[in-house]
Amino acid sequence: MENVTIRMLAERLQLSTATISKALNNSHEISEETRQRVLALAAELNYVPNPYASSLRKKASNTIAVVIPEVADSFFAEAINGIEAVAQEKGYHVLIYLSHENSQKEQTILKDFQSGRVDGVLISVTTETTATGLEQLVRDKPVVFFDRVCEEVKAAKITTDDATAAYRATTHLIAGGCRRIGLLSASRQLSISNKRAEGFQQALLDHQLPLLPNAITYCYNESAANYQLLKTAFLENDYDGIIATTEKLSTAVYEVCEALQWRIPEDLQVIGFSNLSTARFLNPSLTTITQPAFEMGKAAATLLFRALKSNNFPLQQQQEVIPSSLIARNSTLAKDK
Amino acid sequence: MENVTIRMLAERLQLSTATISKALNNSHEISEETRQRVLALAAELNYVPNPYASSLRKKASNTIAVVIPEVADSFFAEAINGIEAVAQEKGYHVLIYLSHENSQKEQTILKDFQSGRVDGVLISVTTETTATGLEQLVRDKPVVFFDRVCEEVKAAKITTDDATAAYRATTHLIAGGCRRIGLLSASRQLSISNKRAEGFQQALLDHQLPLLPNAITYCYNESAANYQLLKTAFLENDYDGIIATTEKLSTAVYEVCEALQWRIPEDLQVIGFSNLSTARFLNPSLTTITQPAFEMGKAAATLLFRALKSNNFPLQQQQEVIPSSLIARNSTLAKDK
DNA sequence: TTTATTTACTTAACCGATTAAGTAACATAG
DNA sequence: CTATGTTACTTAATCGGTTAAGTAAATAAA
């Protein structure tokens, strides 16, 4: 069975393809009667328009790209959910690209976007990303950064209150009696990592606590390597409190404590930036900084679609900070909020 | 700056567009010298081919679709990982569609595939799915079902050993002393749900245990509703062992036990079909049936690409069962494997 | 030497939609 | 009664590649 095209509809109805196209697109140039005839035949023959023909001509694909470091992370999974909810509603398609925390791969992905394959991009950069290639992308088409943004690039950004969250986390640990607090960071480059580090340091300062020489541990993207790194760091620094700034690192802390036979929270209080739905069922339940992942995805997508709809929307100036929340559980001792 | 097209390259080099196209596609018809000149200019002008022009002409999009009920589930997240790994390697693009456990939405998604937007489809159906629309899809283009397959449709399928896994889970509970075992099922229609139920019943039979009248609880897709449902079911049936056949349901059990103040495993032993990386850190650590999610995704994608490469590959006859594994932890008492 | 084949191209049709520009028929305004 | 508009179409160009078919020149085979 041949694919049904606009031309076939035209022939059957003794009309031009232009008329069919306009009828299907509800053009006012077409009489109601003709429109109905076209719609009827289209339905009867199960006509489905070829998106590529349309994209080629219109130079618009009704497709957006989502570039993230990984999917197996509650934050990104939930963010995709938020993005997809908006995209589905707007009739857009979502291409997912995983950079696997590899800026090389990310570059390759960004390069592909110069092809016009997608109308817009939502991106959360890798831990290694520098601005290279991103300015180009932002110049070329609508882009919204979310969570892991690139500070140097002037573009729309949806973030959470990273510095404040880290400040709050640190204060929470201090309130629980911690004096030797460590921070596990995913990256030296990432602005959200740096902001979290700043909030951390500011909190120590405000509470007259010294910054340990090895207060901040920069981790890898590989769990086996991190395991060794953390084990050593824990033993050398004798932390009494730790802030894990990513979900994976939160779990790693539990793993290392198990191995070292450090009790949580008696020996080490732990707070993790995590969206794990099971945080409350962990042993002990994990005090978290929970990010509004779904909302951030939704906000990012909403912003993007606004830009896609009206091209005079000043997308690059948009900034939105959605607050995270600290949920105190049993891995920390402070009783405050 | 205008977009660089093949035509522009042709004009600059005083060649025809056909030559350019062939040179870029490494056709043997083009001399090495010309090929190099074309490649050099293409690189210089940063030429990026328009995928839609190419897709339109070649009737191939180098894009596959992944249709899943949700992303916020370790199994699906990991499966995407596996799929993406293969797709990236093969130079394909991945469109993600979420059916949100809604067969209506799924239908809409499937309908879109008739447009030729994607060259192949990887799908894990909703809990409500009937065969409608799926046969059509399978007839139209390469499709591989994974995990949640549709039994009635003759098509390539990647599954795990559902019946065996449930049998093993049940036996494990029995070995731990359970006599009143319940099974939480996600669906009455899903073949994987039914297979798990079968394995469960067979194990009871083989161990001379009666099947409780309310042994199987069919759950909703909504956690608040499930919470109530399970609470009631637990109280009414006084289970001493429970098998949660999905990740979400596993967590729900912990929630309900907390509310009912039932201790795990003393009052209720729990085993869950789950790929949560935090299973071992739960309180108590959760005995799981862990599915090879990444591998299943990879296997499904590999199968699909084999079919996309050679069109005489008998895709519809492919069946692969990848074994799951039972990982005994503290939510159950049996000490076996 | 003539014919066949190979090499390295070009020409032009084509994929299936969209859309600027054109037109015939009819209505309305001046 | 002519000018102007409006309605409901059609014609043909276009988006940017790919590819079947054609060709001229060089090379090999008969």
If you average the pLDDT of chain A, what whole number results? 95
Instruction: Tell me how many strands of chain A there are.
Output: 12
Q: Within the largest sheet of chain A, what's the order of strands?
A: 2-1-3-4-5-11
The tally of domains of chain A stands at 3
Structural class of chain A: alpha/beta
CATH homologous superfamily assignment of the largest domain in chain A:
Response regulator
Assigned CATH class of the largest domain in chain A: Alpha Beta
What distance separates the N and C termini of chain A?
65 Å
> Percent helix among the residues of chain A?
40-55%
* DSSP summary: helix tally of chain A: 12
String of helices and strands of chain A: HHHHEHEHEHEEHEHEHEHEEHEE
Report the sheet with the most strands of chain A, covering strand number, pairing sense and barrel closure: 6 strands, parallel
Q: Which fold name corresponds to the CATH topology of the largest domain in chain A?
A: Rossmann fold
CATH architecture descriptor name of the largest domain in chain A: 3-Layer(aba) Sandwich
- Beta-strand proportion of chain A: 15-25%
